[in-house]
Write a structure and sequence with these properties.
alpha/beta, about 290 residues, binds glyceraldehyde-3-phosphate, binds zinc ion
Length: about 290
Amino acid sequence: YLDNGNQIFKDARKNHYAVGAYNTNNLEWTRAILQAAEETRTPVLIQVSMGAAKYMGGYKVAKDLVEDEIDAMDISVPVVLNLDHGDFEAAKECIALGYSSVMFDGHALSTEENLAKTKEIVKLAHERGISVEAEIGKIGENQGAEGGELASVEDAKAFAAAGVDKLACGIGNIHGVYPADWKGLNFDRLKEIADAVSVPLVLHGGSGIPEDQVKKAISLGISKVNINTEFQLAFQAATRKYFEAHKDEDKDNKGYDPRKLLLPGTEAITASMKEMITWLGTPSID
Ligand code: G3H
Ligand code: ZN
């Protein structure tokens, strides 16, 4: 059973904490994320990007994996399954498949088109009790060297009025690793938006933002913080370290067993997520 997260994120906004949204890629990521949520007794949002779904064999494979692991691991905390940065077709497909939440990312469209398409997705999703996240302004792309664009208060009002359940805002945040000369989050704009709309606000590009800025953003109205790159870095570092330390053990210790090779990285994701939960202030459910 998947939770649509509506109450979870409303509570977070009201009480000034955030709930993490973590991207999965495969079995190891899925288990690592669910493990950290269960150990901390906190609700969790697992999200699947279009690229990750393609890698896993489609949106249905990803959904089945998450649901089957919730079952197999006996997970008792609420889990939201969200399509991350979906285009119109992907959002419709995930609604039909029964994802409990979808993000329709229309940032590349004109505001009018983004709003019109978002409204269509809201209608389809809400008929089925599915939550919708929209994007206004633009999240920067460090890897693509694409600059971000500040979300406007006017757009925030229009998208909130369209009935979206969560709103991702460009506030100087960037996907991927932050450049050394990054100027930081635009708290003035975040505050203006938060004062104008009561919908839970989403901070994309959560990896690599200093702790004090994450906490300040949450105090101003951010209720969902998206983390992807951080887990990739944690997985990579732990895996490299393990490979280096065990490079001569292949023959003797069955060092070629993938279940051994992938374990340190998987555990590093769980550890990284548990630390992030303390930054976000996500309370335990009991
Ligand atoms: O939608 C997912 C994210 O915004 C994650 O960004 O890879 O910079 O943590 P990140
Ligand atoms: Zn994002």
